[in-house]
């Protein structure tokens, strides 16, 4: 993510979606009943994440931005490890909604089938967003299609999230 400036896009998007004043301008406000979880992945889930905010507390959501901006990305891409972790966290909960996965790279494929099947079994759609020239749209399209979700290829992450929110 450092190589193609993808992390700068993530930081900019975090400022737009987790700052509730900016989110309102982008029609991306968080609802009081929402549960927002952010997990950062490289070759696996990064230490310290995922981070979760229940509801629409502006200060707590801003804390997500601070954590994202304070993170220094490392090498590797394994979205399947992240999806497996999301499926494990969501299994047995009454939550309905969607999973949004954003990637600017080509994922390692270890655990691919297990992760896709785990999320698929939940009945929760994945909105997959490819950004940057190194993104692998085929991998992201596959997970979106397998779960009845949607795929977007968009370098402007705020625009992509707005498209995703429209899907929701």
Please explain how this structure is put together:
The protein has 168 residues and is an alpha/beta fold. The chain has a single domain (6-167), classed as Rossmann fold (3-Layer(aba) Sandwich), CATH 3.40.50.410. It is built from seven helices and five strands, in the order ααββααβαβαβα. The protein has a three-stranded parallel sheet, with helices on both faces. A two-stranded antiparallel ribbon has the order 1-2. The protein is globular, with a radius of gyration of 15 Å. The mean pLDDT is 83.
What would you call the structural class? alpha/beta
> How many distinct folded domains?
1
Helix content: 40-55%
Specify the CATH homologous superfamily.
von Willebrand factor, type A domain
What's the Cα radius of gyration? 15 Å
Q: Under the CATH scheme, which architecture would be assigned?
A: 3-Layer(aba) Sandwich
For the structure shown, list the relevant keywords.
two-stranded antiparallel ribbon; 168 residues; single chain; Rossmann fold; 45% helix; 3-stranded parallel beta sheet; 7 helices; alpha/beta
